[in-house]
Design a protein that fits this description.
transport, globular, mainly alpha, ARM-type_fold
Length: 1029
């Protein structure tokens, strides 16, 4: 392999004129043995230009990520799939032997890419093909060369990351080696700590991060002794207390969080908080971890709390602490509040901690004011960024405050602080904001205590409502936020609630500051949700409110406003009709702005999804108003068409939901024209399109005839069985829905399904769905379906497919479960039983037809009973929920509703974020009856499932036998002569039920005489009396 030519090709990829030829060359030689090692050689060559080296390392990373893993043969199923290429073992050996040295020798920009390569290689090859990697790591760490330390530690970090989320028993291969490496790491850490240079601290940071990754989710008992664990914890505490070098004070505040001295403190603080949470309560520890917990609780917990308390109390203008380090300190203290040994550390000075450490964090800061002034839209984005909020000191302070209030004696003291600040005439606006912030954070505790009811109403009336008109803009925003927090409070006077609502509406419509308007919108949403009494007072302002929120959504691109819009639309769905078109046009315009450009950015993608959801809420609100839907349809189709034309697959599911909402009542020519776009997307992204998730397939097609040319490709794609199941269901529905209209499609559909049945099938459910398609063909037109089945053979020289299918069908009816599948079987058996010209195979199985039908009826009866029982339980649950809701709304019920304060909700979300990846075994107590089909397809309501549409299996079965008894007595006797006494009794029960259902159907038809077309319309326009069956 010519390294020079490869390097030239890599250089040519940067020239637009030569890129295509260069990429073609690289693609043609990438499978040649020696190619990937040559790329690595180019990466390490100092004679090669840096851009070319960087291009080479990117190519190496892509090659390793894509072609390192050997895919087993059983996972390459598919007739037309080419042999899967993987990098040859000879090349892989060369790369494994040289990549650690490559990391040691490379500059940082290349080292980062090589570290990702190492992680992939270790994930796939350790310990099997690369068992000696630890020997190389230990060898590098054991020398006195810091550069080799750095490369080895980087590789070790990637190795540990691969085991981060694995269970204890799955970490054995790692633990065997790490228990020997950890003492060496500890030794190196102790050597490095006296040296506070940037290079030394960088190495320390890698060691701390590696240790955190190793122990954050589970600490293997064999990894280290409890004494050694305590030594590591003391080391982490010392890192947090380590003084900063003078040079860091010259760096701007916004740049300091990126300094390595602060980053290592952040990781050490994170480690301390995690270990305090896990090991500070020995009584809750399992036996193997009890020694660790006892030593930690005795030696580490209190020093850790004192260290973090010092950080919180020292934070201020004169002593800067980065936000992430401060958040970690607050998180540890919040957890310490719940343990007796650590609570004692700051119990006596807790009010000083709250007033001097927590309260300043809750106040409007200089940074907040600067961001508001320079970029109010960014201020709104920052304030509502949940990921940022989860690790922000303000959320940490709120969580700490919520934990403290659980100590009963503290709530009155905190309330006293709030009162003092709010009533002080000379209080700074920032302090008033902090007091109102604190007031909002403790809402859950104050609302459920009767003793504070008068206090709450007084504060809201005298402090919150007036602040909504304050000249200081951030106080107006804070007042709206407080109203949102207390939206569920039951005011003693309706006038107070009215004034609260009025100031919110006023801020939303007339305030000039975007952050204030956004807070007002959020407050209005919660008031509408919690206070039904105010709906009538908001209604006169409905149109300007909606238009204002849409304008704000366009300006801020804040997804939270989508939920406000959806709430308003659902609350006033009877009144949005006149402005529905204006709303839809605005939403379509906003969606177009959000999705402009070649790629949709991730932050805009979330808001765009919310816009589509709001559009769907608008359609749902107008679903029974056909004239409104007609006006909305062109607007929605433009939006969906843009998604299809640009292949934005992230929005496909929402796009199909919009289409389902449009054809809920009817289907128009424009929708059928649009079907070609859906089919085009199916051919490109079939797995997304074929799954009709939210509505039955018959609602997608309505009552118009579908294009037949699309059916042949449904199974021709290499689909997984889950997706093929949706395709099979689609074919079944088409045959049922368009009876007598698509005769030319019956043969290709049956042939398609028969071909698929001849291949390997892994799931019983999918096999039943395929058989149901053939049965649907028999229901559609038995003569035509039989003609098709007679023309096909199971194998060369064997019996016809019809003979094979019929014999197996009647003997396997017990495999059809659920209500729909059993009904399909019954209608199919009735269809073939009453044929005038019967193929010989049907005569052969005559004595099995009625017994098979009886088995199906018995199964149906069980399924109907189980369904009725489930619906009854659901109704009982709803009634119980209503009773609970009434009880909860009664202000005199002691205890009230258990509500978790906003700060603790943030903490839970933060913990969820930090512990992502832990196995969560679901020991659910729920059980389900076998008679309730748990598959998605049972919820689809086809034409044979709708009540009162002529598709009653009991009536159809009895009429079939009655007709045959009169028309063809010999055939009738052949069907019933073999029944035993039990089967005859079952048959009588079926006949009795048939007459009861016939009477009920007659009653429905009498009731429908007021609108004679209504019954047939609701049944999809299908007349069961027509056709051959």
């Amino acid at each position: 392999m010519d390294a020079g030519r490869v390097a030239m090709a890599l250089k040519a990829t940067m020239d637009p004129r030569e890129r295509a030829a260069a990429e073609e060359y690289l693609t043609s030689v990438r499978k040649i043995i020696g190619f990937t090692p040559v790329l690595l050689k180019i990466v390490l060559s100092e004679d090669v230009e840096p851009p070319v080296r960087h291009a080479a390392v990117i190519y190496v990373k892509n090659m390793i990520n894509s072609y390192w893993e050997e895919i087993p043969e059983e996972e390459t199923r598919g007739e037309n799939r080419a042999t899967v290429f993987t990098i040859h073992e000879q090349d892989r050996f060369v790369i494994r032997e040289g990549i650690i040295d490559a990391i040691i020798q490379s500059p940082e920009v290349i080292r980062t890419q090589l570290a990702e390569c190492v992680r992939t290689i270790l994930r796939l090859d350790f310990p099997g093909r690369w068992p000696h990697v630890f020997s190389k790591i230990v060898e590098c760490i054991s020398v006195s060369d810091g550069k080799q330390w750095f490369g080895a530690l980087l590789v070790l970090q990637q190795l540990v990351k691969n085991y981060e989320y694995k269970k204890v028993k799955e970490k054995t291969d790692l633990v065997v080696h790490m228990k020997n490496v950890l003492p060496l790491l500890y030794q190196r850490m102790c050597q490095l700590m006296p040296n506070n240079s940037q290079e030394s601290v960088y190495l320390q940071k890698i060691i701390i991060k590696t240790f955190y990754t190793l122990v954050q989710f589970n600490l293997h008992p064999d990894l280290m002794t409890p004494e050694h664990f305590v030594e590591w914890m003391e080391l982490a505490r010392q890192v947090v207390e380590q003084p900063l070098p003078e040079e860091t004070l010259c760096v701007d505040y916004e740049d300091r969080p990126q300094l390595v001295w602060w980053k290592i403190k952040k990781w050490a603080g994170r480690l301390m908080g995690r270990m305090l949470e896990r090991f500070n309560y020995p009584k809750n520890s399992t036996p193997e971890y009890k020694p660790f917990a006892e030593l930690y609780s005795k030696n580490c917990a209190v020093p850790a709390v004192r260290t973090m308390l010092k950080i919180v109390m020292s934070n201020g203008e004169d002593n800067y602490v980065t936000p992430r380090v401060l958040y970690r300190a607050l998180t540890l203290l919040q957890k310490a509040v719940g343990h007796a040994n650590t609570w004692q550390v700051f119990k006596d000075q807790i009010m000083d901690v709250i007033t001097q450490g927590i309260f300043p964090l809750l106040c409007h800061s200089k940074e907040d004011e600067e961001l508001w002034e320079t970029d109010p839209q960014e201020y709104v984005r920052f304030k509502y960024d949940i990921l940022e909020d989860l690790v922000h000191p303000v959320s940490g302070a709120a969580s700490f405050l919520g934990a403290c209030i659980r100590h009963r004696k503290l709530l009155p003291k905190i309330v006293s602080v709030i009162e003092h600040v709010l009533n002080e005439s000379s209080a700074e606006p920032q302090h008033i904001d902090g007091a109102l912030h604190m007031f909002g954070q403790v809402n859950a505790f104050l609302i459920k205590k009767k003793t504070y009811k008068t206090f709450l109403e007084t504060v809201i009336t005298s402090q919150v409502v007036p602040r909504a008109s304050d000249k200081v803009r951030f106080l107006r925003a804070r007042a709206c936020w407080c109203i949102q927090q207390y939206s569920r409070f039951r005011f003693a006077h309706m006038s107070t609630l009215s004034s609260v609502t009025a100031v919110v509406v006023n801020c939303l419509l007339h305030d000039t500051e975007i952050p204030v308007k956004v807070e007002a919108a959020m407050a209005l949403q919660m008031i509408l949700y919690d206070q039904e009494k105010v709906h009538s007072s908001v209604l006169p302002y409905l149109k300007p409110i909606i238009l204002q929120i849409l304008e704000m959504l366009k300006e801020t691109e804040n997804d939270e406003l989508n939920s406000v819009m959806s709430c308003i639309i659902s609350t006033f769905e009877e009144h949005v009709g006149p402005i529905a078109v204006d709303i839809a046009n605005q939403l379509a315009s906003i969606f177009a702005d959000l999705t402009s450009g070649d790629e949709v950015k991730e932050d805009k993608s979330v808001t765009a999804l919310g816009v589509l959801g709001t559009l769907e809420s608008l359609l749902d609100a107008a679903e029974e108003k056909e004239e409104v839907i007609n006006d909305l349809e062109p607007i929605v189709l433009v939006v969906v068409q843009s998604i299809m034309q640009r292949n934005i697959s992230d929005f496909y599911e929402q796009a199909y939901s919009l289409i389902c909402s449009l054809n809920f009542l009817r289907i128009t020519p424009a929708l059928w024209d649009f079907y070609s776009s859906i089919y085009g997307a199916f051919r490109q992204h079939y797995a997304d399109v074929v799954q009709l998730r939210n509505r039955g397939p018959e609602q997608v097609f309505g009552r118009s005839q579908p294009p037949a040319d699309a059916f042949g490709n449904v199974f021709n794609k290499q689909l997984e069985e889950d997706s093929e199941s949706y395709a099979a269901k689609l074919l079944e529905v088409v045959l049922l829905q368009f009876r007598g209209q698509i005769d030319t499609c019956v043969k290709p559909i049956v042939e398609l399904v028969v071909t698929r049945l001849g291949k390997e099938i892994f799931g019983v459910e999918f096999r039943v769905l395929c058989l149901s398609v053939i049965i649907a063909a028999l229901v559609y037109n038995p003569e035509l379906a039989i003609e098709v089945l007679l023309s096909l053979r199971v194998a060369e020289g064997c019996e016809s497919l019809l003979d094979h299918f019929i014999k197996h069908w009647v003997n396997e009816v017990a495999t059809f479960n659920g209500i729909h599948n059993r009904k399909m079987c019954l209608f199919g058996l009735c269809a073939i039983a009453q044929l005038r010209e019967r193929p010989p195979v049907i005569n052969e199985i005559a004595r099995s037809i009625i017994p098979s039908c009886i088995v199906l009826f018995e199964g149906l009866q069980r399924a109907y009973e189980a369904k009725a029982e489930e619906e009854s339980e659901s109704t009982d649950d709803e009634e119980e929920d209503d009773d609970l809701a009434k009880s909860d709304s009664d202000e005199n019920v002691s205890g009230g509703v258990a509500v978790v304060e906003d700060g603790l909700q943030r903490e839970a979300a933060s913990d969820k974020l930090e512990t992502d990846g832990i196995d969560n075994d679901d020991d659910s107590d729920y059980t389900f009856s076998d008679e309730i089909d748990s598959e998605d397809f049972e919820i689809y309501e086809t034409v044979i499932d709708k009540e009162g549409c002529g598709f009653d299996e009991y009536v159809t079965f009895k009429d079939m036998l009655t007709t045959l008894q009169q028309r063809d007595p010999h055939w009738y006797l052949a069907l019933v002569s073999g029944l035993d006494d039990a089967q005859n009794k079952s048959l009588e029960k079926v006949f009795l039920l048939a007459e009861q259902k016939r009477a009920a159907l007659a009653n429905q038809q009498m009731n429908a005489q007021v609108n004679p077309d209504r019954l047939q319309e609701s049944c999809g326009g299908f007349n069961f009396g027509s056709g051959s069956a």
